[in-house]
Every structure is written in C-alpha cells, then in structure tokens.
Task: inverse folding
C-alpha cells in the first residue's frame, strides 16, 4: 500500500511539473496576460469540477455557512497564487520558479508560528536556514544566473514574485487545513476555484481574452486544466489515504527534478552549478521540515 501511495505521489508530481511548461507556451503563443490566464484557468477548473460533481455525487455540493470565510480566504489565496505563479514562470523560468515554490512548507512553518503559535524547533530553524541559502544561490548572485537560450536572468523582481507565489501557496494550505477535515477534497477544490474566479473577475475588464485562439493553444490549455490541475490533485489526494502527510510532502519534492527536466527539454532552460546547488539546499530544507510529522499537505501548482 505504501509503495502504491508513493508511486501515485510521484505520478502526481510529474503532472504538476507540466504547469510551468504549459503556462509558458500558452502565454507565448496566445499573448494572454498572466492575470487573464489565471482567471480562465480557475474558471475552467471550477466549471469542470461543478459538472462532474453535479453528475456523479451532488451531495458534495453542500457546505456549511459558517465555513464560508475560510473558503473565501482559500479561494482568494489560490487566485492570487495563480497570478503570481504565472508571472514567476515568465520572469525567471519554469525550473527556478518551481524550486522557489517548493519553499512553501517553510513559509507555512513561519506563518503557523506567527498565527497559530506553533513552536519553532531547531529542525525548523535549520530548514529555514537551508531554504534561505538555497534561494540566494538560485538568484544567480554567485554565478551567471543564466536560464535559457536567450540569456534570461533571475532578476530581483522575478525572485520576489516567485517568493510571493510561495507565500500565497502556503496560505492556501493553512486555510485548507480548516476545511479538509469537514469536507471532501473535491468540495474544497470546487469552491476554492469558484471563489478564485470571482476574485479575479474584476481584473479581466482591462485584460481581454486574445481572440481568435488557435487550436494548438486550446489543446495546451486543456492540458493545463485536465493534466496539471485536476489529474494531479486527484492522484495526490488518493495517495494521501495511503501515506502519512510528511512522507507525501517529502516525495512531492520530486516535482523540482521533473520540472527542471521538462523545462530543459521543451523550453531550453538550464541552471548553472551554483543554482543547482541552491535547488538541492531548498529541497533539503523542505525534507528536513517534513521529517517527523512536520510536513504540510500541498495542493499542487
């Protein structure tokens, strides 16, 4: 059972690792803005889940009114996360953006200390130190900072956006902890994407959808929704029934490797030696904070 669970998590990370590639290709080929793509991604995911749940298990549509503030907070977080994630992929590349996003458990640890008074242990301090050191190396300050065939660099602004994306991702996980015990994961995901869509809607009036959209872009977008978002989440939630959250969280860091490989093959991105060392430090920090039951459940990119 454990081996099956680990296999499902690895498969989920393979699907999640396609996120940066899909986003990069969609924006480059369609001209859509990162904000616009985030809105249409959330809307499409919400619509697909609503139809599926309404057909196969309508009972999952029920929610308690007292939980609406948590649902709204989580939905607002995912809306902001997808905007920031899209921007970070375009600014610093899919591979580095994925590594920085894996800092999310570190930010969850810090936020849980601030808001929920969870203790900061020596292990957590060590994980934070590794994460900070790794992020500094990823910035390219000790190397070329080169990311692709067009000599794209990791800018301070791009790194800041990626860190903000990781913070929003961590916030989403914290708010989700208030809901997953009372509802099916599908219910939480449905309403989270629904609120995310509403939050991003006012920003669309100045970001019209480029039209017409080629068949190629439509197929890539379908891949982002069905492969990255829905299938990745379905596999991971299934695996969580077979694994401890800490083991799943550690296994989830394999997304960094898969994202790097895909970004190298499809987008031509590459890291220098210092950035690779930085990636290793970030992943080591996540593993350290996850060992011994201190990991957090992630929701994917």
Result:
């Amino acid at each position: 059972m454990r081996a099956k669970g680990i296999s499902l998590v690895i498969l989920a990370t393979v699907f999640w690792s396609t996120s940066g590639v899909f986003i990069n290709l969609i924006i480059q080929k369609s001209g859509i803005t990162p904000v616009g793509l985030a809105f249409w991604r959330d809307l499409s995911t919400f619509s697909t889940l609503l139809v599926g749940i309404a057909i196969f298990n309508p009972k999952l549509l029920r929610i308690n009114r007292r939980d609406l503030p948590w649902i709204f907070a989580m939905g607002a977080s995912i809306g902001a996360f997808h905007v920031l994630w899209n921007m970070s992929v375009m600014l610093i590349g899919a591979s580095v953006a994925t590594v920085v996003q894996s800092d999310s458990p570190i930010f969850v640890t810090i936020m849980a200390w601030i808001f929920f008074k969870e203790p900061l242990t020596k292990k957590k301090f060590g994980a934070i130190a590794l994460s900070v050191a790794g992020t500094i190396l990823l910035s390219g300050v000790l190397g070329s900072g080169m990311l692709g065939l067009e000599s794209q660099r990791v800018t301070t602004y791009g790194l800041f956006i990626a860190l903000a994306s990781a913070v929003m991702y961590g916030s989403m996980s914290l708010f989700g902890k208030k809901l997953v015990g009372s509802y099916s994961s599908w219910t939480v995901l449905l309403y989270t994407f629904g609120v995310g869509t509403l939050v991003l809607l006012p920003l669309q009036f100045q970001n019209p959808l480029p039209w017409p959209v080629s068949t190629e872009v439509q197929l890539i977008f379908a891949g982002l929704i069905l492969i990255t978002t829905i299938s990745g989440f379905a596999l991971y939630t299934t695996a969580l029934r077979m694994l401890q959250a800490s083991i799943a969280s550690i296994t989830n860091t394999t997304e960094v490797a898969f994202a790097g490989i895909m970004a190298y093959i499809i987008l031509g991105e590459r890291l220098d030696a210092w950035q690779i060392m930085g990636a290793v430090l970030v992943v080591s920090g996540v593993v350290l904070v996850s060992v011994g039951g201190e990991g957090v459940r992630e929701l994917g990119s």
